[in-house]
Amino acid sequence: MSSIGTSKGILEIGKFALYVSIPIGLMYTLANNSENMKKLIQMESDQIESAYPPAKRILEALRELMANSKDRENKEIKSRSKTG
Known about the structure:
- The chain is mostly helical.
- It has 3 helices and no strands.
- The protein has 2 domains: 1-52, no CATH class; 53-84.
- The chain starts with 5 loop residues before the first helix and ends with a helix.
- One of its GO terms (cellular component) is mitochondrion.
């Protein structure tokens, strides 16, 4: 710390001021107007929905796959019983 001169000390104070003021400014901007927060939440939820399919679609797809596999098994069993 003894190597910090006057110019470096001012730089450190300036960086600290930025590190503190930017989050405070963003929090004030979002908290001051509830519409801004709603827009931010809506954008985030849209991104999440596009990245992950809804559980309902996943369940429907799994049920369809299970039904298809049961149909295949039944066809194989019938074909084995006919040949055997």
